[in-house]
Amino acid sequence: MGRTMTPALVAGLLFLAACGSGSGTSGAGGGSGEPKTGGTLTFAVGSDTGCADPQQVASNDSIYSVRQLVDSLTDQDPETGEIVPWLAESWDVSKDASTFTFHLREGVTFSDGTELTADVVKANFEAVPDLGALATLATGYLTGVKEITAEDPQTLTVAFEHPNAQFLQATSTHSLGIVSQASTELTPQERCTQGIVGSGPFTLAEYVPSQSATLKKRTGYAWGSSLWTKDGEAYLDEVVFKVLPEAGVRTGSLQSGQVDAIGNVARADEPALEASGATLQARANPGAVFNLGVNNSNPILQDEKVRQGLRNAIDRQQIADTVFNSGTEPATSILSRTTPGYHDLSAELGYAPEEAKALLEEAGWKPGADGVREKAGQKLALNLAWFANSPTNQPAVELIQQQLKDAGVAVELKQYEISQGPEVQQSGDFDLMWGNLTRADPDILRTLYSTSLANVYRVPASDLDSTLTAEAGAVDAAERKELVAQAQEAIVGNAYVIPVVELQTKLGVAARVHDLNFEASSRIQLHDTWVE
Amino acid sequence: MSGQLLETGTALGLPTTPDPAQSGSRGPDPARATRRTLAFFARRPGLVLSILIVLVVVVAAFAPGVFSSADPTRGVPEENFQAPSTAHWFGTDSLGRDLFARVVHGAQLSLRATLLAVSFAFVIGGILGLVAGFVGRWVDDVIMRFVDVVLSIPTLFLSLAVVTALGYGTTKVAIAVGVANIAGFARVMRAEVLRVRTALYVEAARGVGARWYTVLGRHVLPNSISPVLVLATLEFGTSILAVSSLSFLGYGAPPPAPEWGTLISDGRNYLANAWWLTALPGLAIAATVLATNRIARALESEVRQW
Amino acid sequence: MMRRYIAKRIAQAVGVLWAAYTLSFFILVLLPGDPVTAMAGQGMDSAPVDPARLEALRAEYGFDQPAPLQYLEYLGRALTGDLGDSVATGRPVTQLITEALPQTLLLTASALTLALLFGGALAMAATYSERRWVRQFLLSLPPLGVSVPTFWIGLMLVQFFSFRNAWFPAFGNDGVKGLVLPAVTLAVPTGAQIALVLAKSLSTTLDEPYIATAKAKGAGRVHVHLRHALRNAALPALTVAGLLVGALMANAVVIETVFSRNGLGRVTQAAVAAQDIPVVQGVVVYGALVFVVVNLLVDLVYPLLDPRIVLAPTRPQAVAA
């Protein structure tokens, strides 16, 4: 059902995500003592998208668990952003960045016993466009693919119509994690509910949607990423992910030792968690910052001055300091500062309430009797779609609502379930939408704002398109950086989107847990993790 | 939800089938009546307190400014998570909003929803019961079978079905609660109509050739309505609980609307560091429900004595 | 006589189930709002703005047919135990619910047991005590119990017994310890109801002449209270307990979300949020089923306790107002 997917439907699920390069990763609790094999780690997350297929999930809480089931062709160094071998021992990229040849490692098997070959990877990539609405990330990475060829069992070539510089980094993400041949033949829905078979360090023992996911160690695992410190199998015997929607319950459960680690630590809970001996691990996420995505086709919001007015009316520092975990930085561009190609635009993203009012006045919106601006009898009223997948989202949008009210803009908050995200984006039934999208590559801008892709925000066609196309084909790093900077200037300058704060992933980890590491996308890597 | 709980109380004490022999009124005597009333209240301090609480809540619902001048949807973010103090009686929430102001303004939303829910159930259920009792025969059978069915579905489930069909929002939640409570009103109304219909004065009115609507409007309705009104008071308390349960589950008005159930649900995220965000709105609900129930019980025993 | 009574009660129970199914069908399918659009928007297989898909869905779920036909088709399937498939997860509704139901029933049963024990004890103590202030204090507790939002009691218990003192887990379905707080929470309003009813009927019974006779014959107070009064007063309390099961189940749904327990509550909440109509309908039907079965059992036990009942045409419609 609904499996046909035009490339145009490919765009970004905003939501929580996390990819990262840049800031350091550190294991929790330091490295006291010798690592021990065995034991169970219980990890509490706040939400579940109802899908156990890494190629179809975009929300951190789901990625944490399903990431452990699959290996990727490459891995990305969280420190340097460099792409390093994993399932592919090496690769060649054509001069125009349009053809990629991967040389696969031998002896890799999936947990159903079948072997990893170039044909299986080909089947994986070819199945992606049929995955449908949830797989927007994976679909986006493979847009414009011309031909996928299995040269021999160990050699795979992926050729694109156009230069596609981002593809190499894409192969390191969970979205292009490799599943078995049998799993590629399931329907997208079956892949979600049954889960997939991968070659990763853990296998899925049980998945109960909205409740829990239980992972077991894959015995005989011997093809870990070149970044991992331990060879062979993982330390942990079992990992249990529990869905605990209430932040207060997650925090209390970590404090009282009922769980070993929790995602999404709230600022208010930090002191209590630290006092209880838990370690707080933070890592800034690269990619698109938390922003108000603007529906640029809305008649009110088609006016550039209105969008700029909204942009200037937001007090980013206040939001970062009140709502988000400590250490969170206000946005200074649409990309976070840990993203390759980040370009500082803080001058345009300062808090300027008077300018904001002036811009709205210029656009013809005059203060009405109730404080809400009006033009020709119409109120300056907008709805803001948000998703309850993180405890920070509600206070964040409430504070934005309050700040915009000061500028004379009435905002109505519309809450959706995380599973409704794709529908809201595709239907365009929103004026503003709260979210972010993590990826350690500036091509995220093309995914989100190119009019030739999904164009969820209904951005009008402009020079921005050609800049983004050129960026995708730029093999030269300096040239690409320049193009990416231009794109950020266009996006922020025209206020096609309103950047607000950077996302910083913060985990609470019990003292008995060691080496719970962030991977390059600020999600977790559990192969090297051990418990006392 | 607890709809059926309290109704049990009703049925076991109450006016479902009052003894007609007890009906009848005494001659009026203003002075004596006043003295009796005062004595009545003097012996019931709990009732007086309950009436005061309900008055306070009603004023809060219709003129929240009387109690709190603070804006319930606007806070000072720098002053968030302050414990209760003289400046903020109920403390402040995650965005520095005054919780007392939010509870006071929340009364408006929650009480209106409750009022709507009870009125909805009262009107629809009342009409059903009236028709069943007055028309009788197969109409009575059909309506009362329907009522029995509705009674066998836990009220919360019925409300959830309605919410699923209608969507979220204060009014929709109110209707959902109202729909689930129709049956109780229908049953009591019917019982009363049946009792009154056979009473002497109704027979007499019919005997002198009064039209059916005259009999209904002038005799049956006025004489059968009071137990239904008592039920409405009792239902008020349970409906407050039902409405706040639904808004606690997230089916009420979108933020920043401070519905009582929503306040508790929001505070849940801060159980570990800000107890007042859950504890105090819950106390407000409990006090209101307790007070309305106390008043309902008093009304109920009065009606029984008539 | 007995057999006819039982047959009649079972027939009534079946009738109620049919009607519950019908009622929920009409609420969900015929109320404003297009169920297909609502469905198409959710779940993992959504491409919602595609009109062709909407049509396909309409046909698949039979919504392109007139309502009475749809209803008959659905009812026919329901009779074979097929309540349709969840729109969000694609799994059969009966499977989803029967997986979740045991946890909820366990919680409900534990809570009912606690409620009977504590509600009964409270009523006994209140009527047994000869000190006025003790009686008044004890009798003031049940009205309090029914006035406090159940979910709030749960949160307060979590705050105190899980977070401040890690005595009981705050969430989950693990073992007896995890059951304590939710069961106690749920037992509060139910126990309060039972205490109200039992106290009332106890004090009525204690005024009966035969109690005085028993006392005059030299029976001890404890003996009179337990042997004579409780036995008679227990009947209404039993009826009430049966009727309270419905409310208890419903409260359990809310309480499960407070304690992040797996069970019918999770299933229900997810279904309402996703407008997963078949699942919501299934929950309503199962709610009615549990209620009906429990009350059927109560009705069948009743004649054993009080043989006069069978002679009456039906059980007095006491409580259900």
UniProtKB/TrEMBL annotation, chain B:
Keywords: Cell membrane, Membrane, Transmembrane, Transmembrane helix, Transport. InterPro entries: BP-dependent_transpt_permease, MetI-like, MetI-like_sf. SUPFAM superfamilies: MetI-like. GO terms for cellular component: plasma membrane. Gene3D superfamilies: MetI-like. Signal peptide: none annotated. GO terms for biological process: transmembrane transport. It is found in: Cell membrane. Residues 111-296 form the ABC transmembrane type-1 domain. It is a multi-pass membrane protein. The chain crosses the membrane at residues 46-67, 113-134, 146-167, 173-189, 228-254, 274-296. It comes from the Bacteria. Residues 7-31 are annotated as: Disordered. PANTHER family: OLIGOPEPTIDE TRANSPORT SYSTEM PERMEASE PROTEIN APPC, PEPTIDE ABC TRANSPORTER PERMEASE PROTEIN. Belongs to the binding-protein-dependent transport system permease family. This is ABC transporter permease. It comes from Kineosporia babensis.
